[in-house]
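User: I'm writing a tutorial on reading structure tokens. Could you give me a worked example: one chain, its sequence, then its tokens, then a sentence or two explaining what the tokens reveal?
Assistant: Sure. Here is the example chain.
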Amino acid sequence: RQLKEAYGFSLIELMVALAVASLVYFMAMPGYQHAVLKANRIAGKGVLLDVMARQEQYFIDHSRFAPNLPDLGLPEPYLVDGRAQPAPLGRSVYSVELVWDGEEFLGAQAVPRNRQRQDAQCMTFTLRPTGARAVSGTLSARPYLCW
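And here are its predicted structure tokens:
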């Protein structure tokens, strides 16, 4: 009797390939997600620097800080994506806000949104008019590690 040549893969071979692919995926995914969070931080910090530069120019022109984002030429709410571009609520990674204590301007904040809320290390970025930088996450005692 002549044996027919087998074509394709056996079920066992497919299962082994699937197991190897799954293992690689689950080992690589946490590192990738951490890299995305860190990349989004750059967008949040960049937007804060832009907002504070606009506030400084507004202060020079009006002898006071702008009370809201539209006075700085920005939308309210100001939601940005990972490329520091205005984004809809579902795609935003930060919400940028001005922080006031009564009549005193305290600075600007980038508050994490959506998946960026998983960034427990840095969380909310704050930039003060004096240039002081802060974060609210687990690295709040060492904000320079986030900035």
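What the tokens reveal: The helical segments are 11-62. The mean pLDDT is 93.
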